[in-house]
Amino acid sequence: MSETNNIGLGEGQTGDQPKGAVMRVASQYVKDLSFENPNAPISMQQAQEKPEIQLEVNLGARPMGADFPMGKDFYEVEMSISARASNRETKDLLYVVETNYAGLFLIQNIPEHSMGAALLVEAPRLLFPFARQVIAESVRGGGFTPLMLEPLDFAGMYRAQLEQRASQLKAAGQNSDGSEPPAGQA
């Protein structure tokens, strides 16, 4: 599956012109997948329609570099999702499902100040429906009702990450770009 987002194209421009920003999914894949049902078969008797779910999501992105065979404009975006389901009444663990789902993106002509949002908001937004399907099918294959994760607010996650980084830099006495503030303005 491939999707192209031509961002910022003005009137009269086409995606072939160098000024248009391009973000294209080159491929997507499961890097790691785990399903654990540590208390089977007892957990199967405790299964509920709506177990208590603890969800953890982590995002990462890296440039593939100039030596990458497909070209220097490729980035890998990886989404790690971990879900622990437990019985609401007994709190017994029902299952744990984890996946690292990634995509290889061709990104061109996106300004440096917008790369973080492209890699940690837009790319995960494109990958998430497929990662969610992997999770749902794994849980179903484990004998439980499929876990249908709600859509995630990747923009909110990105903003929270930026705010956390800014507060850490402020606490360390640095500006948001990592530079030292002028004397007397810390």
Shape: globular
How many structural domains does the protein architecture include?
A: 1
Major sheet characteristics? 5 strands, antiparallel
On the 0 to 100 scale, the average pLDDT is 85
Strand order within the widest sheet?
1-2-5-4-3
Question: If you compute it from the alpha carbons, what radius of gyration comes out, rounded to the nearest whole angstrom?
Answer: 21 Å
The topology string of helices and strands comes to EEHEEEHH
Q: What would you give as the CATH superfamily?
A: SecB-like
Strand content: 25-35%
Overall number of strands: 5
CATH architecture name: Roll
Descriptive notes:
Helix 2 crosses helix 3. The protein has a single domain (22-171), classed as SecB-like (Bacterial Protein-export protein SecB, Roll). It has helices at 42-46, 112-141, 154-171; strands spanning 4-7, 21-36, 52-63, 74-86, 93-108. Residues 1-17 and 182-186 have low confidence and may be disordered. It has three helices and five strands, in the order ββαβββαα. The protein is α+β, with helices and mostly antiparallel strands and 186 residues long.
Walk me through the topology.
Blueprint: E1 4-7, E2 21-36, H1 42-46, E3 52-63, E4 74-86, E5 93-108, H2 112-141, H3 154-171
Antiparallel strand pairs: 1-2, 2-5, 3-4, 4-5
Helix pairs in contact: 2-3
Subunit structure: Homotetramer, a dimer of dimers. One homotetramer interacts with 1 SecA dimer.
Pfam families: SecB
Family: Belongs to the SecB family.
